[in-house]
Write a structure and sequence with these properties.
The structure is a single chain. The chain is an alpha+beta fold and 174 residues long. The protein has a single domain, classed as Cytochrome P460 (Chalcone isomerase), CATH 3.50.70.20. It is built from five helices and six strands. Strands 1-2-3-4-5-6 form a six-stranded antiparallel beta sheet. The protein is globular, with a radius of gyration of 19 Å. The termini are far apart.
């Protein structure tokens, strides 16, 4: 009986380690066809004031926004992240509305919801069951640590852990 219990405990520990090892960009499905199959719902300056972004949502995320609750498993948000356009002096350019202007593509961020994915992270940075990946234009992993994304999104629990949730809800209601 004790031996069986030890084997079960060891097995459970390995499963827990495996789940944690898979956390981060490695378990995100990069949707190469997002421009043709997702819906663009936001374009503009990021909250950091240093980048321009264009955000896209898959149909699952749009339905989740229509339903007004937590994002369902399979929801994906893709954000093209651009450097700011620079003037001749190397200063960021702004349009007539004082909004940062889009420069060159820097990265593509992908948020995805998976069943129980949040359990792989400490509670203080857990963003529901979202996980995050930062990719290059070809879909290759650009950064293998999603901690910064988690820390930034964790305070947004009231808006499905998204900075652009209201824009998504508005687009979903059209």
């Amino acid at each position: 009986m004790t031996k069986r219990f030890s084997v079960l405990v060891a097995g459970a520990a390995l499963v827990g380690l495996a789940a944690t090892a898979l956390a981060g960009p490695e378990r995100i499905s990069f949707p190469a066809d997002y421009k043709s199959t997702f819906t663009q719902y936001h374009a503009g300056e990021r909250l950091n004031g240093e980048q321009y972004a264009i955000a896209f949502a898959n149909d699952i995320a749009l339905q989740g926004a229509r339903d007004g609750g937590a994002m369902p498993v399979g929801a994906q948000i893709v954000m093209e992240i651009y450097k700011p356009a620079l003037d001749a002096n190397g200063e960021p350019m702004r349009d007539d509305n004082d909004s940062l202007m889009q420069g060159d593509l820097a990265a593509i961020g992908v948020m995805e919801v998976g069943a129980g994915w949040g359990e792989a992270y400490p509670e203080d940075i857990r963003s529901g069951d979202w996980d995050f990946g930062l990719f290059d234009a070809g879909g290759g992993i650009k950064k293998d640590d999603s901690t910064a994304c988690l820390e930034c999104h964790a305070p947004y629990g009231d808006s499905a852990y998204m900075h652009t949730y209201e824009q998504l809800v508005a687009k979903a209601g059209e």
